[in-house]
Q: What sequence folds into this?
């Protein structure tokens, strides 16, 4: 069974440009999460999809960030326009079921560098 | 929002020794989980302990939870060089709606096991 895959693994862009990160969850997982770790700080929650619906987007930092999950399969996270403080590692995770004890499976992350 | 803080930030030990990492959090939780991240890889779930549990074992891992002190510890016994990684605690807090399932992470402990 394939795990959570993220693309690209690393992206280097200039301030003001647009970047789109992609996450493919484990097949059959309805729950999809985005997290990010900025400048070696703690990993912070961004948002949570249940199928194609945004269940919780309380962690999204501002309106420069747009997440979508059309069809309830893969998800994209677009940053437009990117700022220097957006640099960090963006993780995607997926899980099945509705229990709060379900384990989240993480991708390897996308390292975003904004110059 | 709650935050987990981990102690120490970095730990270096010899192979065969035990490693203990601590985690503190600030609010009520439903469960606490520990994750490991090897360099350049995704986070891997290690163990989950519920709020009504005090201790849990899994192989060479031992986790304790003290809800009165809002703290947890992860003990890795007979460490191996392959245990070298970053270790994160993460809590799950069910908010008023009971729908929040995001993980709230600590800042992590970098463990280095020397051969």
A:
């Amino acid at each position: 069974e394939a795990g959570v895959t993220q693309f690209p693994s690393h992206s280097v862009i200039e301030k003001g440009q647009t970047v789109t990160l992609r996450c493919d969850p484990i097949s059959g997982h309805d729950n999809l999460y985005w997290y990010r770790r900025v400048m070696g700080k703690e990993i912070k929650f961004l948002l949570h999809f249940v199928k194609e619906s945004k269940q919780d987007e309380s962690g999204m930092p501002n309106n420069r960030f747009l997440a979508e999950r059309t069809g309830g399969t893969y998800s994209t996270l677009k940053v437009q326009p990117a700022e220097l403080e957006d640099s960090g590692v963006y993780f995607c995770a997926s899980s099945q079921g509705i229990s709060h004890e379900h384990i989240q499976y993480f991708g390897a992350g996308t390292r975003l560098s904004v110059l | 929002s709650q935050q987990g803080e981990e102690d120490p930030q970095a730990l270096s030990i010899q192979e065969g020794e035990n490693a203990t990492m601590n985690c503190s959090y600030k609010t009520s939780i439903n469960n606490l989980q520990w994750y490991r991240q090897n360099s350049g890889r995704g986070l891997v779930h290690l163990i989950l302990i519920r709020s009504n549990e005090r201790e849990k074992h899994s192989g060479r891992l031992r986790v304790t939870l003290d809800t009165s002190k809002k703290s947890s510890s992860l003990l890795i016994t007979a460490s191996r060089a392959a245990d070298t990684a970053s270790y994160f605690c993460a809590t799950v807090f069910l908010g008023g709606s009971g729908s929040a399932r995001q993980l709230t992470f600590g800042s992590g402990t970098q463990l280095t096991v020397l051969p």
Observations:
- The CA atoms of residues 17 and 84 of chain B lie 13 Å apart.
- The two ends of chain B are 40 Å apart (CA to CA).
- Chain B has a mean pLDDT of 89.
- Chain B touches chain A through 28 residues (CB under 8 Å).
